[in-house]
Amino acid sequence: MEYIEYIESFFALVGDLTWGWALVPMLIIFGLLFTIVGRFAQFTYFKRMFRVFKTDEVGDDGISARQALLVSIGGRVGGGNIAGVAVAISLGGPGAVFWMWVVALIGMMTSIVECSLAQLYKRRDNDGNFRGGPATYILHGLGKDYRWLAVIYAIALLLSFSIGFIAFQGNTVAGSALESFGIDRWISGAVLVIAGGFIVFGGIQRIAKVADVVIPVMALIYIGMALIIIVLNIADLPALMAMIVKNAFGIESVVGGGIGVAIEQGMKRGLFSNEAGLGSAPNIAATAYATHPVSQGISQSLSVFIDTIVVCSATAFMILLSGVYQPGAEVDGIVLAQQALTAQLGNWSQYVLTISLLLFALSSIMYNYYMGENAINFLVKKNTKTATFVLRVVVIAILFLGAVAPAATTVFFFADPLMGVLALANLLALIMLFPRAKRLLDDFARQLKSGVKEPLFDAQEYEKLDLDLSAWGKKAVKEALEQKQ
Prior knowledge:
It is built from 21 helices and two strands. It is mainly α.
């Protein structure tokens, strides 16, 4: 038992040195710096972000930009968009919602930077698929002297997302199914094993295809219920918006701590939800076909907007318009969301919420698994297929364990502290590699200014960088050169 206590104390210290110290302010400050130096690209290209839904171009390899976006949305959007928002409002007041919005708008720029770098340094694996992410751009962007940092990142990614968070998702699904429908945990676990096994054993291609179907359905169901509540209370919406803004700046404080608590809760929950700057989404961004790194960065930025500005706002409006919100009251986040729905729409809505949670969890399971697959591919260069197979078996086993054992998640206490390690390592890399991201942004803007409708990346102009030219393909380079002539 002493060893367990030492391990718990160690990870508690890791959590304090990351999340508990200055990581959240650092993510905000550098996100704001990226925004200013990057000339507010998240606003300049906002309309352009939606082009991703009009194309399904996949090139010779990789998944489409739309599929990559949907997988990222599936990973970002989860129980935190419901429970996390409810907790933030309970502890920080309505003003916390405003600071969530601020974090999202800043985080959209951070997402452009990290996902553009992931595209720039992506590599082609032995099966011809594209892979990349923070571990890859740390190693090939910063050089071999930083291999240690890339390895730490990959290990932390594997343990936190594909081990810890997988158990949490299994636990959430089984617990929700038991409470709402009376389904035994082992039945939920068995269903998750079958569904999860079918998805993860198909790799990124199957994950992308499933996400193409599941994510839109998931979003439409949940946002649809929120819109019904907003329409039913449309007359109260202007007053609600005024209350959110006033509470955000301490003009009308409804909880103890005033503006400070509102800012703390809003920013922290916003970052936890949209994951901008944590380095998870770039792992997906690197898998997509793109004509220019910034094109994928812009597309992925939209997932931050959808996660926080759309889905988190939907939860906030449901809670605040329903009349169930009690300032300062400590309540389970899911319960508060259920109370809001049943108060406005009736008892049937809590079952729909449970179904939404199941879809949220399924999408997160797909996303979390791929984080581990990407980490394994980076860490293991020989017998990669065998290592990947072992990972898939372990993930399915942990998924079942998390589902059948109510207290199983306490075993994976290391997940949140390790996510702090991910964020710190990724932020360090982004700061040092930002000049290259800025070069990409300038090239993208220059091509648009010259009249090019779809900027093309000429990898030969970046020959001094450690890039995998085969990942961009001769066709794209040839088209770029022909366009310049």
